[in-house]
């Protein structure tokens, strides 16, 4: 007996799914509503890994079946009732009443702020690139209100950097909406928060050891070394240029930090892989910048711990 062919089976134009709704719903600690959790499907040629950028962002090659994909947009959730957005795990972890009360009272403010940059975003359907960017911006505004015990600063750094990437992807998709300019704003925010992360970790004000991954992307955890590298890279690419004396002093400090952490100039192979290669490239760029700035009254000697 022949099986009856359904419309779904016979529709050659129906695009295969990128994501699915999990059987386990997510409970929002702020409004106590439950909502569906969207997760990305794996396999089937969905994730064809491409290049790794100097910002440690993994690019993915588009396919005829799925087109362009952005796996990192599925790493945050957003409650469609109160617009609270967090990394999925924090919907379970955040329980303290002061944080919850602040997030509850701020729902309309963050909703209007996000709509101003990512208009017409939708939290109830399968997310697209704009929806994903909106969720990340909601999360950035939420972690601004989260207690230090949940390590919000490093999360704001990662989220800001990912928002810059997503805005650049949006600019490539819809180039007339100035998302390239917005990306630069998020890059500067990322620089600020990565700097704060290092300061808070050193002083003990906000430890970050409880995080499962420091990212910055979802494919690999580059650990604390990645934080040091990214702070130096973002300073080089997006740091202030009004005070050049201060800028070059930052370059000198970052060059020394990179040399110390990655053992540049030594024969040690303790930190092999792409991060070491990119750190070496950044070190060379900073060294060249400093060499070109010999007219400034700062110490540009190579008296660091690189072994050179």
How does this model look, in words?
The structure is a single chain. The protein has 308 residues and is mainly alpha-helical. Helices cover 46% and strands 7% of the residues. The chain contains ten helices and eight strands. It has helices spanning 7-10, 90-93, 97-105, 107-117, 129-143, 152-173, 179-203, 223-238, 244-262, 274-291; strands at residues 19-21, 26-27, 34-35, 38-40, 49-52, 58-60, 76-78, 85-87. The strands form four sheets. A two-stranded antiparallel sheet has the order 1-4. A two-stranded antiparallel sheet has the order 2-3. It has a two-stranded antiparallel ribbon with strand order 5-6. Strand 7 (76-78) and strand 8 (85-87) form a beta hairpin. Helix 7 (179-203) crosses helix 8 (223-238) and helix 9 runs antiparallel to helix 10 (274-291). The chain is globular. The model is unreliable at 1-10 and 302-308 (pLDDT under 50).
Chart the SSEs and their pairings.
Layout: H1 7-10, E1 19-21, E2 26-27, E3 34-35, E4 38-40, E5 49-52, E6 58-60, E7 76-78, E8 85-87, H2 90-93, H3 97-105, H4 107-117, H5 129-143, H6 152-173, H7 179-203, H8 223-238, H9 244-262, H10 274-291
Antiparallel strand pairs: 1-4, 2-3, 5-6, 7-8
| Helix/strand structural class | mainly alpha
- Number of H/I helices: 10
Overall residue-averaged pLDDT value: 88
The largest pleated sheet is described as:
2 strands, antiparallel
Cα-to-Cα separation, first versus last residue? 79 Å
């Amino acid at each position: 007996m022949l099986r009856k062919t359904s419309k779904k089976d016979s529709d050659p134009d129906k695009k295969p799914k990128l994501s699915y709704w999990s059987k386990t719903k997510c409970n929002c600690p702020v409004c106590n509503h439950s909502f569906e959790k969207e997760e990305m499907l794996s396999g089937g040629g969905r994730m064809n890994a491409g290049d790794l950028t100097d910002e440690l962002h993994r690019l993915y090659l588009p396919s005829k079946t799925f087109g362009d994909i952005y796996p990192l947009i599925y790493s945050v959730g957003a409650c469609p009732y109160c617009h609270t957005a967090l990394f999925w795990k924090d919907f379970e972890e955040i329980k303290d009443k002061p944080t919850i009360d602040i997030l509850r009272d701020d729902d309309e403010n963050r909703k209007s702020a996000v709509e101003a940059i990512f208009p017409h975003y939708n939290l109830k359907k399968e997310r697209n690139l704009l929806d994903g960017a909106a969720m990340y911006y909601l999360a950035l505004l939420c972690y601004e209100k989260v207690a230090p015990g949940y390590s919000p600063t490093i999360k704001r750094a990662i989220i800001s950097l990912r928002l810059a990437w997503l805005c650049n992807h949006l600019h490539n998709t819809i180039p007339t909406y100035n998302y390239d300019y917005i990306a630069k704003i998020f890059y500067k925010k990322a620089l600020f928060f990565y700097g704060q992360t290092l300061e808070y970790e050193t002083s003990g004000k906000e430890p970050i050891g409880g995080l499962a991954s420091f990212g910055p992307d979802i494919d690999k955890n580059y650990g604390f070394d990645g934080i040091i590298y990214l702070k130096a890279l973002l300073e080089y690419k997006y740091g202030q240029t009004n005070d050049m004396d201060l800028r070059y002093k930052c370059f000198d400090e970052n060059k020394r930090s990179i040399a110390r952490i990655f053992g540049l100039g030594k024969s040690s192979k303790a930190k092999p892989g792409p991060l070491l290669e990119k750190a070496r490239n950044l070190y060379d760029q900073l060294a060249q910048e400093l060499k070109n700035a010999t007219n400034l009254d700062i110490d540009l000697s190579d008296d660091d711990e690189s072994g050179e």
